[in-house]
Design goal:
Distance between the termini: 23 Å
Order of helices and strands: HHHHHHHHHH
Number of strands: 0
Helix content: over 70%
Length: about 260
């Protein structure tokens, strides 16, 4: 097995990828709030628990020799839940506020991406061929998902837009990114990372829209109901992707091997 194939462990960037990503990050928002707020575990303890979950899943991902949808998306959910509680701890428990927390996290994300670009010569997720590249990739995702919570909370609570208004604003920006991808010559790698970062605050605001009561502008499903719905939807999406990949693998095998 050559080095390039060894480290090709990311999904194809398709419409299914983005839908699954939004579902996973929204689940991270509702799941993080479920443990830290609804169950009253607190932001600090919840962050430790979820970071432990992230450490376990990302270790499995790093040790894996191929792309496994269930494992990959487990790490995404882990970064989202950990990012939710870590952001809330910074902004609320430490009292930094949403604006300051977002600024700190934006700076950290820029530093990680800059170091990644400097050492690996590319930020393209399809060109990750080394263990170091993988570590940069998952570190950037962890920071981007933590940033997404802070930015989503800032838009929903501090900007005056509310949950629905924030979701509409971020959706509009994401639409512009899609149009730029198809109708401009802007770097596809740059647009990918913009979209990747923005889908997290979209998930954060959409999660708040699902969970918050009606008198606060939400739909009133609560963290438990919303988390259950999103978890089941994520299972369906990952199962579909797994079956699709298996069928493609079987179709690509020689006829003799398929009979055996």
């Amino acid at each position: 097995m050559n080095e390039e194939h060894r480290y090709s462990k990311v999904p194809e960037i398709t419409f299914l990828f983005w839908i699954t990503k939004i579902c996973a990050t929204t689940l991270g928002e509702t799941g993080g709030d479920l443990l830290s707020m609804t169950l009253n575990v607190g932001y600090a303890i919840s962050s430790l628990i979820f970071f432990g979950f992230f450490a376990v899943t990302v270790t499995g991902q790093l040790l894996s020799k191929k792309y496994i949808p269930a494992l990959y998306w487990s790490v995404i959910v882990a970064t989202s839940t950990a990012g939710t509680t870590m952001s809330d701890y910074m902004d609320r428990t430490l009292g930094l506020g949403y604006a300051t927390g977002s600024l700190i996290l934006v700076s950290l994300l820029i530093i990680v991406l800059s170091l990644w670009r400097f050492t690996e010569k590319s930020l393209s997720v399809m060109e990750i061929k080394t263990r170091r590249g993988e570590l940069f990739y998952w570190t950037a995702i962890l920071f981007s998902n933590t940033l997404g919570t802070a930015l989503g909370d800032f838009l929903a609570d501090s900007s005056g837009l509310g949950f629905a208004g924030s979701a509409i604003l971020i959706s509009s920006v994401l639409l512009l990114v899609v149009l730029a991808h198809y109708f401009t010559k802007i770097s596809a790698v740059l647009l990918f990372w913009i979209a990747f970062v923005l889908t997290r605050p979209f998930g954060a605001t959409f999660g708040d829209l699902l969970t918050k009561p009606h008198d606060k502008g939400g739909l009133g499903y609560g963290t438990q109901g919303a988390s259950l719905i999103l978890f089941l939807l994520l299972v369906l999406l990952v199962t579909y992707e797994t079956i699709k990949r298996h069928r493609r693998f079987m179709a690509d095998r020689p006829e003799h091997d398929r009979r055996i």
